[in-house]
Amino acid sequence: MDKLDHEILQCLVENARVNATSIGEKIGLSTSSVIERIRRMERSGLIQQYTTMVNLESLGRNITAFISIRLEHPKYNEVFERRVRRHPDIAECHYIAGDVDYMLKIVTASSKTLEKLLAYIKSIEGAAWTRTLLVLSTVKNELSALPALEEAERE
How far, in Å, CA of 119 to CA of 80, rounded? Predict the structure, then answer.
């Protein structure tokens, strides 16, 4: 990945709908060169998908929380993961190292729906311990955090 690829990626991270002509004008490349570079990054797997960020508060999802969970034993991981995938208010699930096994990001409508979700999680076989952290405000929320160009070039 060179400097031009990095600049193209930065344009796409800022606005995935920006067209190749606009990117080319901004970074000094022809439209066809931009398109070819984007296709190469897609084929290599560097660009995985294009997405839309939705303001969930406008849909009535006013509560964001993080719940850490410790399971009794790793034999419960599969059933836990299956149940987590089914629940629409669980936005993210990460299997992590440390004192807990999983970290969930929750986006839900109210404290009542958070309470019901917590009961759902605690009812999953093997769930031994939970800790809930309520988000008061979000300082930074980026879907793709691009490394600085110097870091990308070192790899």
Answer: 14
Please check whether residue 101 is in contact with residue 95, taking contact to mean a CB–CB distance below 8 angstroms: yes
Q: Give the distance from CA 128 to its chain's centroid.
A: 26
Nearest-angstrom CA–CA distance, 104 and 81: 11
Describe the crossing of helices 31-44 and 3-14 by its angle, rounded to 10 degrees.
90
Q: Model pTM?
A: 0.78
DSSP designation for 76: G
Rounded Cα gap, residues 118 and 66, in angstroms: 11
Facing residues of 78 across strands? none
Helices (H), the chain: 3-14, 20-27, 31-44, 77-86, 111-122, 149-154
pLDDT of residue 147: 72
Cα-to-chain-centroid distance, residue 68: 17
Residue 105's identity, in one-letter code, is K
**How many CA atoms, within 13 angstroms, populate the side-chain half-sphere of residue 146?**
19
